[in-house]
């Protein structure tokens, strides 16, 4: 099995090293990551100018590459330039949760989505900021679950989040739907016409069958996502107005 590992935190990020090493038991692992952090890059790709794609070296029998591109570019370039046919793509482990509407901004989830678009099963994995102790204790069992039950599929992107960092360990896992998480961000002027993001007020989904709610209660959440975004009932209503 050929396994591609990507991320949006960059080639030197802690999470991608933990994930790549943990995946070695399941096949031939290749890493392709941005040369620096690309958090919140969403599904952007570089279409103007050149892109670098450099072989970093072999570490622990894993081939490492880095690119000047975006997370989605990591997938696109690795597929074309390594000469390998990948059976599954893993993105992460992201340093920061990707729950609910976080996935709209997430480069981690978007890299997995790009693999799905390319016809390759994909899994995105995230943890709360700095909460890698729970990853150290539970990543191996999570991967066993994924491979034993073959939870990856060409039919969806599997978005997985460890629980919020206030928990030392999870209470298990839950399959659930994507929730809503709204950022109301302020902006602080630092000089004439230049601003920084100021404190955000975040509204969290309280529906008990969502990833946002269940992660706040200590569960590992698993959400199958799709690329197709057409609201079918609204489409049928609009057709009646033709």
Task: Describe this protein's structure.
Helix content is 28%, strand content 31%. It is globular and about 50 Å long. By secondary structure, the protein is an alpha/beta fold. Helix 1 runs parallel beside helix 5 (132-148) and helix 2 packs parallel to helix 4 (107-117). The chain has a single domain (2-178, 207-239), classed as Stationary-phase Survival Protein Sure Homolog, Chain: A (3-Layer(aba) Sandwich), CATH 3.40.1210. It contains 7 helices and 11 strands.
Q: Key features?
A:
242 residues, alpha/beta, Stationary-phase Survival Protein Sure Homolog, Chain: A, two-stranded antiparallel sheet, 7 helices, globular
- Based on secondary structure, the structural category is alpha/beta
**CATH level 1 class label:** Alpha Beta
Distance between the termini: 50 Å
Gross morphology: globular
What's the CATH H-level homologous superfamily?
Answer: Survival protein SurE-like phosphatase/nucleotidase
Number of helices: 7
Instruction: State the CATH architecture.
Output: 3-Layer(aba) Sandwich
Oligomeric state of the chains in view: single chain
- Poorly predicted ranges: none
What's the main sheet like? 9 strands, mixed
- Estimate what percentage of residues fall within beta strands: 25-35%
Summarize the amount of helix as a percent range: 25-40%
In total, the number of domains comes to: 1
Cross-sheet strand order for the largest sheet: 3-4-2-1-5-6-7-11-8
Count of extended strands: 11
Give the H and E element order: EHEEEHEHHEHEEEEHEH
């Amino acid at each position: 099995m050929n396994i591609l590992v990507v991320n949006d935190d960059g080639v030197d990020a802690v999470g991608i090293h933990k994930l790549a090493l943990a995946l070695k038991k399941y096949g031939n692992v290749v890493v392709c990551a941005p040369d620096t952090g690309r958090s919140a890059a969403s599904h952007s790709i570089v279409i103007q100018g050149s892109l670098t794609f450099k072989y970093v070296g072999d570490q622990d029998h894993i081939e490492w590459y880095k690119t000047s591109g975006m997370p989605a570019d990591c997938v696109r370039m690795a597929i074309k330039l390594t000469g390998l046919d990948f059976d599954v793509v893993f993105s992460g482990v992201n340093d920061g949760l990707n729950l609910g509407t976080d996935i709209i901004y997430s480069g981690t989830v978007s890299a997995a989505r790009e693999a799905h678009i390319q016809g390759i099963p994909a899994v995105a994995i995230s943890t709360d900021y700095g909460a890698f102790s729970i990853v150290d204790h539970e990543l191996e069992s999570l991967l066993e679950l994924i491979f034993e039950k073959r939870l990856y599929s060409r039919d969806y992107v599997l978005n997985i989040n460890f629980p919020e960092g206030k928990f030392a360990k999870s209470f298990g896992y839950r399959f659930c739907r994507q929730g809503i998480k709204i950022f109301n961000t302020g902006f602080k002027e630092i000089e004439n016409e230049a601003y920084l993001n100021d404190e955000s007020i975040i509204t969290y989904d309280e529906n008990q069958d969502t990833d946002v709610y269940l992660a706040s209660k200590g569960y590992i959440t698993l959400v199958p996502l799709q690329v197709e975004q057409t609201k079918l009932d609204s489409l049928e209503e609009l057709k009646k107005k033709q």
